[in-house]
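Predict structure. Input: LuxR C-terminal-related transcriptional regulator, 356 residues.
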Amino acid sequence: MKHSNAIAHLRRLCCSGLSTEIVIEEFLRAVPTLIASNNNTFTGTDDRLYPKYHIASFDIGDMREIIPNIAASFHTSARQRRAIDWFKNHMAMTDARVLEPTFYQSDLYNLVYKTFDMHHVLWMPVAQSGKPLGVLGLYRPKTQKPFLSREQEQLGRLVQYVAHALNAKAAEDNACGDSGRTGMMILNARGQIISQSLEAERLMSMARYPRLVIETRSEDRLLAKLAQLCSQLAAVYRGEEASPPSHCHNNAYGRFLFRAYRLQEHSDYQQNLIGLTIEHKVPVALMVLRAMQALALSPMQQEVAQCIAQGMPFETIGRRLHIKPTTVKDHVGKIYTKLDICQREELLPKLLAMAS
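Output follows.
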């Protein structure tokens, strides 16, 4: 993807009206199209840059339980003062030894960074009106070159948009589409997980841990809700009045639909097995943005295509983008040609099919 298109995509993402967590996770996933990097993170902080939560662009797996504590132990008062003093005169930090001379001997590096091949760092604070909001972290393996000054400048031009996303109020209702990801879990009658598919394990991880924080009560609430589905299913089969055993869970990764089904009947109720399906859905607006990343459209054509996907009349598109109606029609004709479609009703299904 050309740099101009990558920058336009990241800016549109930050102004999309999606929830903060969805935008930040997707930003971390998409920023490598502009700046070569891997396993990127965002750390929300307080005014003194002490970490409050972490959002990652990659699956942390079994380390979700220990990373927040390791990170919290590393960020001492002395190290935070060094960070604050550095960022008073620099837009970013690309040498972790500025923060701690022995960083590459620390537990944070050897237990976390090294595990995920995060050697070279590009740490950039995000602030609004002088108030720190967090720190963007881009990373590269040891085998690659450190981040360059021009890459710092590229990321710096996007920081104000990230700040906008962190402070924006998400739209209350976002239509969702299928991500194509489903999983199956086996639970006992008490709601305890007996077995699960690999995809179910990944989806549960996404559902339970949208942020890495020391506090884990949100995780417990979800597990308690799944146990409640098992109880509801049992009540249905006892002939009692009960709600259907399904639950919709929303978080940074979209929408997760859980449905419980009976697998077998056993004389001992506690031994009965229950199948629980997980279906993942993501906001349609996000699917459209993802699809347009792969399209050979100019930034303006992508803007027009997004407006068409939202159902806007051509006149409204012109007023919104400050272009003439004839210019809108010209862009629409080129979009239809590139996507091999003939009418606007075909656009959204085409984009959703590309994103799934």
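Residues 217-237 form the longest helix (21 residues).
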